[in-house]
Amino acid sequence: MTLPDVVATVPALRERVASWRGRGERIALVPTMGALHEGHLALVRRGRREADRVVVSIFVNPKQFAPSEDFAKYPRAAERDRALLEGLADLVFSPAPEVMYPAGFCATVSIAGPSAGFEGALRPGHFDGVATVVSKLFIQVAPDVAIFGEKDWQQLQVVRRMVRDLDLPLAVIGHPIVRDEQGLALSSRNAYFSEEQLAVARRLNGILRETVAGLGAGDWPAKLAAARQAVAAAGLGPVDYLAVVDGETMEPRDEPSGRPARLVAAIRLGPVRLLDNMPVPG
Ligand code: AMP
User: Fold this and answer.
1) Which fold has domain 5-175?
2) Of 38, 29, 33, which Cα lies nearest the Cα of 185?
């Protein structure tokens, strides 16, 4: 097993990718902010199945954090991340902020539509930051496929819309959420929880499962109201949102529309906003 090489500049990245391309190899990109866990590693394994080479980008993107958010204290673990990628990734692209955003940088990629509402409303500028950095990564790496987690459902829809609207020549693959044994969606920010908070956080999954099971019988507003009550009773909360949306456009839905729907939730617990989502059957 070999540790993946790490490159920090765009020319070094492009040189490596060009050598693979020259041999006709397919390339997958897995964009991350590091502090890797099994959820990220599942995306990397998926990348290996979809392509010959996997590039993992590790970049804590300042543009997707609001000034009030945790950019400075977001967990960073470069050596550990590299060790976790041993035998899985071919290359780690880990640019410094000034490589991504040189002095005078003033470009913004803004995708309306699925960015509106939910995370977009609660975190102004967040999806512009995501779309800007992801489009740069797509141009820098020029992958055949990019793998994103369904964990960040709205982000996945924003990226899909961006790729479609801008005719970017790659396929976007959404990979299912990886959870711990008790159903909690893995997240780098779970590291902020105390043991007690972790135990409470693990109750969310069961509440969402019960909720989606109940949605099949109709009366979505009542089912969502009951879910909010269950969240409060479990010691979780406040609820930033707990809603059913169109699975692609992110428009809120209060009844079946014949299109795929998704239950999306963001619940605050101590220092963390817990994000989770599930498909609504039917
Ligand atoms: P992040 O490092 O949090 O920006 O996440 C990088 C990628 O990993 C994103 O596409 C996330 O959706 C994905 N991801 C994070 N946590 C999970 C998880 N528990 N299951 C699946 N994908 C995940």
Assistant:
1) Rossmann fold (3.40.50)
2) 38
**Model's pTM, two decimal places?**
0.98
Q: Domain-by-domain residue ranges, the chain?
A: 5-175, 188-280
277 lines ligand 1 (CB under 6 A): no
188-280 matches 5-175 in CATH topology = no
Quick one: tokens of 37? Answer: 């866990």
Atom of ligand 1 nearest to the CA of 179: 19
What is the whole-number distance in angstroms between the Cα of residue 58 and the centre of ligand 1? 12
Question: Does 175 participate in catalysis according to the annotation?
Answer: no
**pLDDT digits 0-9 by tens, 126-185:** 999 999 999 999 999 999 999 999 999 999 999 999 999 999 999 999 999 999 999 999
For residue range 228-282, list pLDDT tens digits in order: 999 999 999 899 999 999 999 999 999 999 999 999 999 999 999 999 999 999 8
Q: Which CATH superfamily does the domain covering 188-280 fall into?
A: Pantoate-beta-alanine ligase, C-terminal domain (3.30.1300.10)
Count Cα atoms within 13 angstroms, Cβ side, for 259.
12
In this structure, the residue with its CA closest to atom 17 of ligand 1 is: 39
Pocket flag, ligand 1, residue 46 (CB < 6 Å): no
